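Minutes, project check-in

Agenda point 3 was the complex the collaborators sent over. CS summarized: two entities, 342 residues total, and the question is how they sit relative to each other. Sequences were read into the notes so everyone works from the same version.
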Amino acid sequence: MTVHNLYLFDRNGVCLHYSEWNRKKQAGISKEEEYKLMYGMLFSIRSFVSKMSPLDMKDGFLAFQTSKYKLHYYETPTGLKVVMNTDLGVGNIRDVLHQIYSYIYVEYVVKNPLCSLNEPIQSELFCSKLDSFVRSLPFFSARAG
Amino acid sequence: MSRPANRRSENPKIDWHLPTISSSASAHHMSRELFVLTYGALVAQLCKDYEQDEDVNKSLDDMGYSIGVRLVEDFLARSALKKCRSYSETADIIAQGAFQMYLGVTPSVTCTNAKRNEFSLILDKNPLVDFVEELPAARSSLCYCSLLCGAIRGALEAVNLAAEVTFIQDPLKGDEATEIGITFLKKVEDKKKKRNK
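CS then shared the predicted structure for the full assembly.
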């Protein structure tokens, strides 16, 4: 069980942060294009999901999985999007993504007056706290799962 | 690991109790008096910096806006609320959730128009004016708490709800209670970022 990588987007599509822990294959395009691709996909899938839902929507798009990995998605009402790719053994981790939002993003970015929102996060403290948080997750193991 | 934040509403302390997950994110207690006096000092300094009352009001409103944009993230993080389904639900959350969490008071909410997009929050006691009796004669159009209006406006904009927030009744100008009016304007839609071709 492992975490492959993590993206943080703001409401305008700017990629605020990206970290990877265990990624065997790169996308083959530049990082900028990758972020735009990821954000565009998320935006489209969210509106698709809400349009095509046969029932009233509660939480919207939560996750998708392939035969090799699972992509988890969490969005706050302020438009901050947390995207985490893990392997298939991981269940519903919305509460983990919420914790990344509330205990790391809000604490170390929002509350820091020197960190401007809507720009990629420069804070080293944020990066290290995020890294140690993810490494401490029960489903994270340094060896590829 | 995720403990809900304790919300003890104690007088006179404002209890900003952060969940204890690490030694740095521990419980913060701040004396209410310190907060109110700091706000008063801020307004006093702005009055020294600007001659016109409108400039002071605008400055407070802008500061409040910047505060609101960030404060809403903290509020959402600690209350874990989902999107509100109606304007009246939003107004209720502002009054019972946010005001209670950050100022320790709960205003009452009334809807003031048939279209259900104008609301009034009425506070019997506004903690920010605890030590202010009346406005000085030279500053009669000063809106002492415009930071609050700016904060509410900023917070609502951060969740894509454009609104106008103003003071309808102000005890420093002779009214009995504090009344804040929120008018929700048309919703701002999420725009997809244009791709650079």
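Noted in discussion: Strands of chain B lie at 13-16, 28-31, 108-111, 118-123, 163-169, 178-184.
Follow-up: revisit at the next meeting once the mutant set is ready.
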